[in-house]
Amino acid sequence: MIEQIDEFEFFLEKPWSDGLPVVTPTEERINRMLSATGRDPDEIIGPIPPAMEIATVASVATHAVMAGCKPEYLPVVLGATELMLQAEFNVNGVQGTMHGVAPMMIVNGPYALKIGIHGGSGCLGPGFRANASIGRAIRLILMNIGAGLPGISSMTVFGMPSRFTYCLTENTEYNPWESLSVSKGYSADENVLTMAMVESPRFCWDDVSDEPERLIRGIADTMTAMGSWNMHARSDMVVAMSPQHAEICEKSGWSRDEVHTRLIEVAGRTVSNLKLGGNWRRERALALPVPVDPDDSECFVPTIKNSVDLQLIVAGGWGPCTAVCHGWSGGSRAVHSSYEV
Amino acid sequence: MCSVHDTVEFEKLGTASTTVLTTAFAKAADFQFRSKGMPSHPYIELPHPVSNLSAIDMRELTLRYVDDVVLQLTSR
User: Fold this and answer.
1) N or C: which end of chain A has fewer CB within 10 A?
2) Is A38 inside a domain boundary?
3) Other beta carbons within 10 Å of A71
4) What is the pLDDT of residue A5?
C-alpha cells in the first residue's frame, strides 16, 4: 500500500519553501499559470546567482504557482525576474551579503491596478494577495533557483521580514503628484517596474507638522543613521510618503521634484556626528562620490549622493507617516524598465 | 561572492587566482566554488572581522598571510 504523501510537508522538508507552505506546483496549475503569457515556456530568462541555475519562463511560472500567484500576476513576476538580473542591480552580491536588504518592487502603470496590486492602507503588510504572492515568487526564485539560502550561500545576519515579500504600487487615488515611473520619463500608461535593494522600512511618524519644511526635516532625520550604509556609501533609498504627508507639501504648492530636492538637501549628518559610531571609516568617506573632508568636523555628509538614488513615492493609507527604506553598501543600483503584459 | 566568481573565471582563462575572505564567508565560498565546478579550489581564510581593523593591524594581518597567497598562486 502506498503511503499518502502530505504535499505540503514534502515541499517544506526539501526545503523548497520560505518556511511557509507553498502551493503544490502540479502540471495543471503550471499550465494554467503559463496561459497568462504568450512566451515560450522554454525561453531562457537568465542565470540566478549564486548557483547560476537558469531560470526559464516555465520555472518562473512554477515558482509563481508555489507563491500563490494568480496567472495574471505572471507578467509582473517575469518582468521582475528579468529586471533584477541587470548587472548593476548586483543580485549576486546581495544573495551572499551579511546584510538583509531585499529587492523592493514598485509597480507602476495600469496593469498593476488591473491585477490588484495594492498601494493603499497596509500595502507593505499582510492581506493583499498580489503584493504578497508576487514578492514571494521573487524570493522563492532567489532561494530555489539561485540557492540564496541563509547559512549556506547567504551570510545574512538577520535576513529581514521584507525577504518574505516586498511588492507594492503607489496610492494612485490620493497621490497629488506624478508617479515614480512618470518622474523617470515613462508615460503614465506604461507598465513599469522599479526595483531597489533596500531594508525593511522604518517610520517617520509626524502628526504635528502642518507645513512642508518641518515635515521634511523629520523625514530627512529618518533618512540618516550612523549604522546606515547610506551615510557611508552611494546607496539607494525609498521614501514612501503617506497621502496625508504628501498633501501637506502639495497644499503649500510644493511639487514632487521640490520635495525630492529638499529631502536630498537636508538629509545627512556632520563628520563629527558620524565619527561617534556606526560604519564611519576615513577611507570610506574619502571614497564617496561627493566631496567629504574627514578632518572637517562640520563637513556635511549627505545621505543621498546622487539624486537618482532617492526613490520617492506616495503610498499607504491616510495617516501621518512616511516609510523610509535604507539601502545597501553601495554595490547595487536601483533598476527600472517597462514590462511585457 | 563576486570574488569567487572572478577567481573561477580567471582560472578558466589560465590565470592563477585565489580568493581572500573571512571565516564568516567560508561556507558561502565553499558553496560557490562547488556550484561553479571547482569544489576543491583553495582560498585564504582570515579571522573575522577585518572591517574594523586599523591600518596597522590590517598591515600586520596581510603580512601574516601573504606567503599563503603566494603559495596558492604558484603551487598549482
Assistant:
1) N
2) yes
3) 18
4) 86
Is this prediction's pTM over 0.80? yes
- Does some domain include residue A288? no
3-class SS of residue A83: helix
Q: Does A152 touch chain B (CB under 8 A)?
A: yes
Q: Which residue has the cell 513615492?
A: A313
Enclosing domain of residue B58:
2-74
Task: State the SS3 of B9-75.
Answer: HHHHCCCCCCCEEEHHHHHHHHHHHHHCCCCCCCCEEECCCCCCCCHHHHHHHHHHHHHHHHHHHHC
Over range B41-55, report the average pLDDT. 94
Is residue A292 assigned to a domain? no
DSSP 8-state assignment for residue A19: S
**Per-residue model confidence as pLDDT tens digits over A118-140:** 999 999 999 999 999 999 999 99
Minimal C-alpha gap between A69 and chain B (Å):
30
pLDDT at A1 over 60: no
Per-residue pLDDT at A141: 98
| Cross-chain Cβ contact B28/A92 below 8 Å | no
Q: Which of A290, A310, A291, A292 is nearest to A235 (CA)?
A: A310
In the structure grid, which three cell numbers stand for residue A296, read together?
572637517
pLDDT at A3: 67
Number of compact structural domains in chain B: 1
B31 and A98 within 8 Å at the Cβ level: the answer is no
Look up residue A193 and give its amino acid. L
Total count of domains within chain A: 1
- The verdict on residue A297 lying in a domain is no
